[in-house]
């Protein structure tokens, strides 16, 4: 029996990215209401050696589109990493969702057993598709999305668990 790789990845990514777009909009609204320069929030980080919000959002979208593309055996779109505003970050998230929605379940057939190879810095990694999704893609995706949420929450943006998880 094969594992439903499309069902385990694409709906998960698109749902979570939709919530991330909402979180970013709440941050933009918060900055406007409190007369905070949005760049302060966009460049905020939880600790000096961690990525700022900007990079957390970029990594979240990169991991979703690249991880899904590897599983579907296609090339993801390339984004320039040139966002500097909340509207631009939200647009990046929406572009990622739009790309993910172009992928079809048939492209993921056999992806659970297929070997997936990718670069991490100067290293090359290879895992079975299911391991790639469960041990690398999903944990990294949610790590960076959670960090983005935590940065904004730490900076006073009124966010709660429902903003992150959405309704059921």
TrEMBL record:
It comes from the Bacteria. InterPro entries: DinB/YfiT-like, DUF1993. PANTHER family: BLL2446 PROTEIN, DUF1993 DOMAIN-CONTAINING PROTEIN. This is DUF1993 domain-containing protein. It comes from Usitatibacter rugosus.
């Amino acid at each position: 029996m094969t594992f439903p790789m499309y069902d385990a990845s694409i709906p998960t990514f698109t749902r979570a990215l939709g919530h991330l777009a909402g979180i970013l909009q709440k941050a933009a609204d918060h900055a406007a209401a409190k007369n905070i320069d949005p760049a302060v929030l966009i460049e905020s980080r939880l600790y000096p050696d961690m990525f700022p919000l900007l990079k957390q959002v970029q990594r979240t979208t990169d991991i979703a589109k690249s991880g899904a593309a590897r599983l579907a055996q296609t090339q993801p779109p390339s984004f320039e990493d040139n966002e500097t505003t909340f509207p631009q970050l939200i647009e990046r998230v929406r572009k990622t969702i739009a790309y993910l929605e172009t992928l079809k379940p048939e492209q993921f057939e056999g992806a659970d057993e297929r070997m997936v190879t990718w670069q991490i810095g100067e290293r090359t990694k290879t895992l079975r598709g299911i391991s790639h999704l469960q041990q690398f893609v999903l944990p990294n995706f949610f790590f960076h999305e959670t960090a983005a949420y935590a940065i904004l929450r730490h900076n006073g943006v009124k966010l709660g668990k429902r903003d992150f998880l959405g309704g059921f």
